[in-house]
Design a protein that fits this description.
This protein is of the alpha/beta class. The protein has a single domain, classed as Leucine Aminopeptidase, subunit E, domain 1. A seven-stranded mixed β-sheet has the order 1-2-7-6-3-5-4. α4 crosses α5. The longest helix is centred in the middle third of the chain and has 18 residues. The two termini are 15 Å apart.
């Protein structure tokens, strides 16, 4: 699915984020920037040791924030490591922390003059954030960013499973029904 928002392109695709060509891909990272399972492990494996070497130099990244590194062997220029919250029922600031992880990633893209960025569904895997709650937070954060001054021309949501892809497509349609392009 592809749509225009504020004169910029937003795509929702079903695929592998490590294969997406973009100025930056976003990694659903942990606070220690140690690599891990899911998308985090896949990005580190595909990108090679250069990514982990930079992560070690940075050291840590607090939940709700993000840092930027090289992309190593990936078809991107950078990896933005965004740390989303672990779901604890929704009453521990998880929605705000998730939005902040997306906003910080978008701000880093703007600061680096990037034209394209690809996001996974942050925190909805091992961290247990319900997809139906996380998806509108992600889409709204992107749309709000695109409504302002930004270097971004293209934002891609890359969903690994067909169910996640369908949820994003349906939520994007719902959210866009009331928004100006």
């Amino acid at each position: 699915m592809e749509f225009e928002a504020y004169g910029r392109k937003v795509e929702v695709i079903h695929g592998d984020i490590t294969k997406v060509e973009a100025d930056a891909i976003v990694n659903a990272a942990n606070e220690g920037l140690r690599g891990g399972g899911g998308v985090d492990g896949a990005i580190h494996r595909a990108g090679g040791g250069a990514i982990m070497a930079e992560c070690r130099k940075i050291g840590r990244c607090p939940t709700g924030s993000a840092v930027i590194t090289t992309a190593g062997r990936l078809p991107a220029r950078y990896v933005i490591h965004a740390v989303g919250p672990i779901w604890r029922g929704g009453n521990s600031g998880e929605p705000e922390l998730l939005r902040s992880a997306y906003e910080t990633s978008l701000r880093l893209a703007k600061e680096h003059g990037l034209k394209s960025i690809a996001f996974p569904s942050i925190s909805t895997g091992a961290y247990g954030f319900p997809l139906e709650k996380a998806c509108p937070i992600a889409i709204k954060a992107v749309l709000d960013h695109l409504a302002g001054k930004t270097s971004l021309e293209r934002v891609i949501f890359v969903l690994f499973t067909k169910d996640d892809y369908e949820t994003y497509v349906n939520q994007a349609r719902d959210l866009l029904s009331g928004r100006a392009s």
